[in-house]
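Morning F.,

Quick status update on the modeling queue. The single chain you submitted on Monday has been processed. Sequence for confirmation:
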Amino acid sequence: MSALAMYESMGSLSARMVQAAAANDWERLADLERSCAGLARQLEAGAEPAAALDARLRARKAQLIRQILADDAEVRRHTEPWMAQVRQFLGGGARASSVRRAYGAHSDPNRP
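Structure tokens below.
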């Protein structure tokens, strides 16, 4: 697969990632992200020099990269509030565990 074809595939995946994030379909989003990351690794491993593309194909590549970055920003817009909730939830659990360790497992959490 050529580098440009990989960018085309990544563009398609990133658009689907936006849809999954907007639908709060985190499992599908994670699957799509893994596929996109695999293509990115392939691109890094066998990157074609930019000079190998003519001006029209370089412009298409740049357009695809801009769209992928815009899609990434849109995915983050959907996922960051959810991630903040997860961090808060996990952080609260860690604090509760620390208190239990410090004051003993038998302490009453409702007592001041």
